[in-house]
Automatic annotation (TrEMBL):
Statement: the UniProt record of this protein carries the keyword Protease: yes
Organism: Nocardia fluminea
UniProt biased composition (Polar residues): 66-79
GO biological process: proteolysis
Region ranges (Disordered): 64-85
Protein name in the entry: Type VI secretion system secreted protein VgrG/serine protease/serine protease AprX
Enzyme active site: 47, 84, 278
Entry GO terms, CC: extracellular space
Length: 367
């Protein structure tokens, strides 16, 4: 288990909106057009916990769980002493001084990583089992996992029967979308295609990271370096796996993840900033909540995870790995998909309308 890094914390609110993230994925436009904001939906965030008193989450924190020895080992205290989990949660559903993708969604904080940033896969498995057992009573429809190993895999075949994989499969079958970070070790693995465990499982929605704007240059602890940045350039640290290599285990989608400003733990209105596939994953989790809310309202049912994935891909923006990146990694030259909230909701709406016409016995081709 790779310890997650601490976000840079600030007492002041400098960037109250996730402006460039929001603009790139057209989230505000989608929320307005389709009248969605995450209301009634619930996400479980498996991470370092949550600053539950932050104004960004006021009135929307459901009963969480602590699977670490921190906070005196209290199973009912998922407080975040590290910051990563609060940053991730804010990207999904901040609705106070910051605005996340689904700003009215509920959150279930599940602390599986300690205040050092480290954790165990046993704790993650137990947490997923807890989510599976409590998903109905808490209304959980999305799990966000911005965590993983430091490995690089091209298939889930070597993990047959794995405990975490099996629980995520059961959650997926139950309609709960498991959004998992692809990993931050592309440079460390000498630019070899692949993803970390557990993102490699084919039933996850695996997420890589792009830049959301011209942010200058960055050098990362792994050795990855971006000489310059621009919207939709894949970050040099983001692991990636094209379907031509990984088949059904390929990276599903990319999202803006560097640098991302969100909720912080210094005080109840503080903010933090961080880079990573950890920050891209909650963007996708938030969009999934919006899609689920829309489908539930207009179709009367929760969509399957397979349908959600289909709409994410149908509405995505194609990006080419290596067309304009300026960094120190080798690029695949392959085309990947970058999420669009507006595109995903449009794809969902079209399918719902098509189904309604078919149910009414109308052949749209003759209209």
């Amino acid at each position: 288990m790779v310890p997650v890094e601490k976000p840079l914390q600030s007492d002041l609110t400098v960037m109250p909106e996730l402006l460039e993230v929001d603009l790139l994925v057209r989230a505000a436009e989608a929320r307005a057009k389709f009248n969605v904001d995450g209301s009634g939906m619930t996400v479980a965030v498996l991470d370092t916990g949550l600053r539950t008193t932050h104004v960004d989450f006021a009135g929307r924190v459901r009963a969480g769980r602590n699977f670490t020895s921190d906070n005196n080992g209290s199973p009912t205290d998922p407080s975040d002493g590290q910051g990563h989990g609060t940053n991730v949660a804010g990207i999904i559903c901040a609705g106070g001084v910051h605005t996340g993708m689904a700003p009215r969604a509920n959150i279930v904080p599940v602390k599986v990583l300690g205040n050092s940033g480290g954790g165990s896969f046993l704790a993650i498995r137990d947490a997923l089992l807890w989510v599976l057992a409590n998903r109905a009573s808490l209304g959980i429809s999305v799990v966000c996992m911005s965590l993983g190993a430091s490995d690089n895999n091209t298939s889930d075949a070597d993990f047959a029967g794995d405990g975490i994989g099996e629980v995520m499969r059961k959650l997926t079958d139950a309609g709960v979308a498991c959004c998992v970070a692809a990993g931050n070790d592309y440079f460390a693995h000498n630019s070899a295609q692949g993803m970390s465990y557990p993102a490699i499982f084919r039933h996850t929605i695996s997420v890589g990271a792009v830049y959301d704007g011209d942010e200058g240059s960055f050098s990362y602890g792994s050795g990855a370096t971006a000489l310059s940045t621009a919207p939709d350039r894949i970050t040099p640290f983001s692991q990636r796996l094209h379907s031509s290599v990984g088949g059904d285990c390929a990276t599903d989608i990319f999202a803006p993840g560097a640098p991302t400003t969100s909720s912080g733990i210094r005080n109840d209105s503080g903010e933090s900033i961080q880079h990573g596939t950890s920050q891209a994953t909650p963007v996708v989790a938030g969009v999934v909540l919006l899609v689920q809310q829309f489908h539930l309202r207009v179709a009367g049912t929760m969509p399957s995870v397979a349908d959600v994935r289909k709409w994410l891909l149908a509405g995505a923006v194609p990006i080419v790995d290596g067309d304009d990146e300026e960094d120190n990694v080798v690029h695949t030259g392959q085309t990947f998909n970058r999420i669009s909230a507006f595109g995903a909701l449009t794809a969902c709406a079209k399918d719902v309308a098509r189904s309604a016409l078919i149910e009414a016995g109308i052949d749209r081709s003759r209209v």
